[in-house]
Amino acid sequence: MDLLPLSHTEFSQPDYWNRFFQKRGKIPFEWYGEYPQLHTVIHKYITPANLVLIVGCGNSALSENMYDNGLQHLFNIDISDIVIQQMTDRHKSKRPKMVFHKMDVTEMTYPDEYFNAVLDKGTLDALLVSEDADVVANVQAMFGQIARCLKLGGRYIIISLLQDHVQKVLLNFFTHLGWPIRIHRIYMEPDVRDRSSLSLPVFAVVVTKFRSLPNMPQIVEVCRFEDRIDRLEDIKYLSAIVKDMQYYHIVRQQLLNRLPDDQQVSLELHTRGSDIPRYNLTVVDSPHRVENKFAIFIVPQGSAGFQRLVVVTLSRGHSYENLEAIKAELSSRVMELAPKDCSVKAQIPFLSIGEDIGKRFPVAQGRSDTSGDYLIEDVELNGGQLFRRLVFLSNKNVVQSEARMTHARDKKKRKNRFEGSPGKLRVDKGYLHSDYLIAMVGGFGFVPRLDCPLSCVLVGLGGGSFPSFVHSVFPQVNLDAVELDPSVVDIAQNWFDLTPDERLKVHIADGLDFIRKLVSAGENRDVVVLDVDSKDHSVGLNCPPLAFVEPEFLTTISRLLSDDGIFILNLASRDESIKEDIMQRVCSTFLTCASIALQEDINTVVFASNKSTDSPCFDPSTFTHQCCTIDEMIKSTWKDTNVEVEDMMSTLKFVDRSENVSGF
């Protein structure tokens, strides 16, 4: 600890550095990495013929490593008498061409335009310890001397942590001169779980002496990958990119320890050829100590038992060969996120939902005035099964609607194959992509007679899979589907095969107004379904919007129901207190309330009626019989269906007004 200065001002004082090197002796002291980490950048910009100045050389082994690898025209300066004498004695016989001078970098005596390159490893950071006026003036004097001594076309290479105040002074000075600026990220080889490693990443800044021309734009570049240089439109973007890289490094340092129970870390991994992230990583730690330390869970396009789990989501806009290729690509990067007590030699399991990562075929894209940009894509899963998905890019990790696709019957078999999604496809209307949709179909089991005409209103269309299913299975049902967004209606009809007719009518309207107008007209409906996505997630409610579950509107729905009518609500929220509050509102409005909480989703499907629980339709045997009847109707319509109502409704629970819950 006694090697550290008492004040940052000592960094610019010869006496401090003399004491430092006296105490350290001949042991080299390396600021910001050693030659193996820096040699790529050094040899990229310095050639054997170049005359090179190394400022603040200290007793670093960098000079001797450069000398031994062909860069022998080296001038080394430092303000410490002691270290200059140490270095002269150490190298005079083995490296006779190397020169050491005691000199202050702010007052150099070398001629103008003398050097081809100036290398600064840590000196700038040692001097620029604050934004005090005298500190900045001292650093600007150093910059001025380096600019004077560099030849035209010469390069000043700074190895730095690029903290905010250093960035500001450095970039302002050389932007004012009009010199091109390029930044490289230096990747260190040592184990990142070593606690002695730096808490910030290291960068190499390369500025090139340039004769500025009037109206010539500033050249600003960044190298996030060794073989890729990105040119930026403005210097301001450079700082943002540096901050991103610093954030990633700091997160890796923090992940040496266990995350708090209520915290998770999200990261994006990019490739050289795309601005779209290739992988989205979410790191989650178990609240309990477990024997298994670390695992990676790969979520296909579109856990328990481990101390730390990294969830990897595959992004749109990239192709993936197979799961093994993904493992190979991710292995080195995800190991940087392992907890410190995870052995470097440990075999880290890669988990996934099956081995099929899926192939994507973009079908259509557009923009909705209500929901923003959207994408429709066909995704191949499960050994070749094709699914069509609607995704709004504002929430790109959520599949808004999904339909299973089948090949349309074609008398002439096509011999030629082609890239992209197969043509002549039709939507399999006997498939429902979510358990909550199956539970909503089960709600028809509360209706006393399924062989009589029934009227239904659905608010919220999506891809139209629910109304299409009801329309095909229940020929006695007349259904009004209400959707606020005209684009969603177009999508449902053009891409998900929703076919309106006399029994299935689609209305572009506000669902709140539509239901209020029905009540005002004195009409009734046997089934009322709310499946409306909320655009405002700030209240913690994904579905429906809060206005649909206000007491006043729930009362309006109650008035709309026929004597034997049933209200079906898709309720989605991760906040249990919000769910409980809405359930209480429903129970306060209707005489009978039941629900199914879906274990694999955040959805709870709520069923409510103006009838009391002693009504025959709520008798367990009667309801089970109705569910069996529905399953028979479904099977007679769709042989290859995934919908089994009786099994789904077996977990139904009733809630009475005193909030006591009973199984069905």
The rounded distance between the terminal residues' Cα atoms is 70 Å
Residue runs with pLDDT of under 50 for 5 or more positions: 1-12, 190-198, 410-422, 659-664
Number of strands: 28
The tally of helices reads 17
> What structural class results from the helix and strand content?
alpha/beta
CATH class membership of the largest domain: Alpha Beta
Give Rg in angstroms: 34 Å
> Which descriptor suits the 3D outline?
elongated
CATH superfamily of the largest domain: Vaccinia Virus protein VP39
> What is the CATH architecture annotation of the largest domain?
3-Layer(aba) Sandwich
Largest sheet: 9 strands, mixed
How much of the residues is beta strand, in percent? 25-35%
Compute the average pLDDT: 82
What is the domain tally?
A: 4
**Largest sheet, order of strands side by side?**
3-2-1-4-5-7-6-8-9
What does this structure look like?
With 664 residues, the protein is an alpha/beta fold. Helix 14 links the parallel strand 23 and strand 24 (561-572). Belongs to the methyltransferase superfamily. It comes from Candidula unifasciata.
Which terms would index this structure?
664 residues, alpha/beta, Rossmann fold, 4 domains, 9-stranded mixed β-sheet, elongated, disordered N terminus, disordered C terminus
The gist of it:
The chain has 664 residues and is an alpha/beta fold. Helix content is 29%, strand content 27%.
Q: How would the blueprint of this fold be written?
A:
Elements: H1 14-24, H2 35-45, E1 52-55, H3 62-68, E2 74-78, H4 81-91, E3 99-102, E4 115-121, H5 123-127, H6 133-149, E5 150-160, H7 164-177, E6 181-186, E7 202-208, E8 220-225, E9 228-232, H8 235-254, E10 265-269, E11 279-285, E12 294-299, E13 308-314, H9 323-334, E14 350-352, E15 359-368, E16 372-381, E17 385-392, E18 401-407, E19 425-427, H10 435-442, E20 454-459, H11 465-473, E21 477-483, H12 486-495, E22 504-508, H13 511-520, E23 525-530, H14 551-560, E24 561-572, H15 576-589, E25 592-597, E26 603-609, H16 620-637, H17 645-649, E27 653-655, E28 661-663
Parallel strand pairs: 1-2, 1-4, 2-3, 4-5, 6-8, 12-13, 12-14, 20-21, 20-23, 21-22, 23-24
Antiparallel strand pairs: 5-7, 6-7, 8-9, 10-11, 11-13, 15-16, 16-17, 17-18, 18-19, 24-26, 25-26, 25-27, 27-28
Helix pairs in contact: 13-14
Protein name: Methyltransferase domain-containing protein
Domain Methyltransferase: 53-161
Keywords: Methyltransferase, Multifunctional enzyme, Transferase
